[in-house]
Amino acid sequence: MRLTGKTRVLIVLFILLLGATIALGIFGLQGLMPKHGTVLIDFTGMKKKEAEAWRIDHRLAESQMTFSYSYDEDREEDTVLSQNRPKGTVLEKNDVLVLTVSNGKDPEKEVELPAFSAMSRSEIEAWAKDNGISNLFFAFAVDEDRPKDTVLGSEPAENTVMKRNQKIVITLSAGTKEESSSEIIVPDFSSYTPANLQAWGGSSRVSVSVQYQSSDTAERDTLLSQNPKAGTKISAGSSVSAVYSSGKGIVVQSFAGRSRAEAEAWISSNGLKAVFRQVYHALVQRGGIITQIPSSGSVPSGATITFEESAGLVPVQDYTGRSGSEFEAYLSDLNTRNNASASLTLSRSEEESTQAAGTILLQSPVGEVSPGSTISITVAVGKKAEVLNRAGMEEADFRTYLSGLGMKPGTISSAYHDSIGAGKIIRNDTGLYPVGSSISYTVSKGRFQWDYEDLIQPGKPWAELFTASREARANGWTVTKSDTESDTYEAGVISDCSVSGKTISCRVSTGRFVQVPDVLGKEKQEAIDLLIKAGLSPSDYETTTYRKEPKGTVIGQSIPPSAKVSYGSAISLSVSKGPKPAETAALPRFNLAFWDGETIEGIRSELTNIYHNAGFENLVFTVKDTSGGDNRSGIERITPTPDGSVIDKDTEITIVILSGK
């Protein structure tokens, strides 16, 4: 078919239009799609592992996602708190996404220990979990009086304020000797984690001591040693200890005075975590490290190093021309920032001005200031007038006086007064006040009148007089008493009173008194008869004390001999049970070499626990300095030898500790 010229033109135009439409469509789609990189999502609330999985799925380099750590009281460890690039941002090839991750509760924060004695074991464990306590241990001791799992004590004591990461040992009852006498075979702890070991100790009512030691060959939480050995037979209330690997030790470098970037590089290269606390500081420049915890020694891989980082000087804005209340709120907020390290105080003065009352006229200093500085502001007030002391003026005249000054009455009170007549001013606010202020004052009710004659007669109760004198005492009267013995008046009754001016002095009967006889060393019934004859009421005969005196002999009285006490007073006696029968127990059995390398405090604490649990209280520790010799630390000897022998419980146990430096 032959096309006409007009048709050919239309076809060409259609092709051109179609091409333009396709081009515009492609261009539009390109405008909606990112040129390069990856669109970020909101990572807040995710776990660290989830964020790392997202990075791998989106083929981002490991260096493009890094983590910083911050203590958080509300969100669990490894939960993402924030990100340096918001959701929807395109992460280009050379960009780095920094996710701030929770490192759990701050271990350095102080907590107050509750009343453990009123709590069950499960309640104590729940409290520890809720408060981020990481070093809670249970010890067990035989107790004849209190049921199993009853709290016997704690170290530190209840109500002590301590840091979260400090060790807490709760001692629980393992029950009576009979209940705890069944044999427990110590298992091989090599398959136990420290948490498993704690759980085993709790269910077996055995005290567990866990220590960590760095190792270049054993992974973290791998058992290195245990005492006693697997297969040993023990009973409830005994102690076991285990040493676990904390992993390969990393020698800590101190970054005090160096930059955060240097610290972060070292942290990253050693597989550690870093928490940076920003604080204002006058001497260390912004971004410099002030201190760190720990600053020396060694830590396992994955441990947290806490750095105190300088935020530099405190920036204080100029509030001149704004209200004083605004500045006070601003200063209060500033003092909460960067771990409440600004510690700024406010000095406020006033000056009459034509500007609106409350406006800041002057502020000093402004700009960057040292932590702990005082910021002074001068605030505008309206015209002031001086209010003088107008004591003795009639109230109506005083109100006219205030009106003439441009003031108005404030709080009005009344009081009795010996020399200022009723209706007159006793006292009023004085000094310079802004015009329009409210001035408070007190009006006299005249002289206080009190009819006391009937109340002070002999034979009247002292309590009745003192109660009736309440208003009088509030208005300048003094009512006092002195005690006196009396066979005429019973205790608490007035013998006589004298009045001088506004002072009433009374002598009040304490009743009849008797002298306490000496009944120490007498047989109980003889002592009781003597006390009753003397006019006393003997009671509460304690007979639980072993003494060398024969059974039934009085060895103590609650009121000492020859003391004078009220007739009919109660007196209690302590009576001897006779000589104490000898008690024996088996010495604990262990190898002294187990404590080689231990500290003095560690040895003292662990041996005290072991011997006390075995029934031996008479421990004598001595320390031998070996720093000038072989520098050994541990135990040199224990007398008697800890070999399981059965001996008297009162035997003195001598323990010699070596203190190598």
Tell me the layout of helices and strands.
Layout: H1 5-32, E1 38-39, H2 48-57, E2 65-70, E3 80-83, E4 90-91, E5 97-102, E6 110-112, H3 121-130, E7 136-141, E8 151-155, E9 161-163, E10 168-173, E11 184-185, H4 194-204, E12 207-213, E13 223-227, E14 233-234, E15 239-245, E16 249-251, H5 260-269, E17 273-279, E18 289-293, E19 298-300, E20 304-310, E21 314-316, H6 324-334, H7 337-340, E22 345-352, E23 360-364, E24 367-369, E25 374-381, E26 384-387, H8 395-405, E27 408-415, E28 425-428, E29 431-434, E30 438-444, H9 462-468, H10 470-474, E31 478-484, E32 494-500, E33 503-509, E34 513-515, H11 524-533, E35 537-545, E36 554-557, E37 564-566, E38 570-576, E39 584-586, H12 600-614, E40 619-624, E41 634-639, E42 646-648, E43 653-658
Parallel strand pairs: 2-5, 7-10, 12-15, 17-20, 22-25, 27-30, 31-33, 35-38, 40-43
Antiparallel strand pairs: 1-4, 3-5, 6-9, 8-10, 11-14, 13-15, 16-19, 18-20, 21-24, 23-25, 26-29, 28-30, 32-33, 34-37, 36-38, 39-42, 41-43
3D architecture notes:
A hairpin with a 2-residue loop joins strand 32 (494-500) and strand 33 (503-509). With 661 residues, the chain is of the alpha/beta class. The termini are far apart. The protein folds into eight domains: 1-33; 38-100, Trypsin Inhibitor V, Chain A (2-Layer Sandwich), CATH 3.30.10.20; 250-310, Trypsin Inhibitor V, Chain A (2-Layer Sandwich); 314-381, Trypsin Inhibitor V, Chain A (2-Layer Sandwich), CATH 3.30.10; 384-444, Trypsin Inhibitor V, Chain A (2-Layer Sandwich); 453-509, Trypsin Inhibitor V, Chain A (2-Layer Sandwich); 513-576, 2-Layer Sandwich (Trypsin Inhibitor V, Chain A), CATH 3.30.10; 584-658, Trypsin Inhibitor V, Chain A (2-Layer Sandwich), CATH 3.30.10. It has a three-stranded mixed beta sheet, with helices on one face. The protein has a three-stranded mixed beta sheet with strand order 7-10-8. It has twelve helices and 43 strands. It is flat.
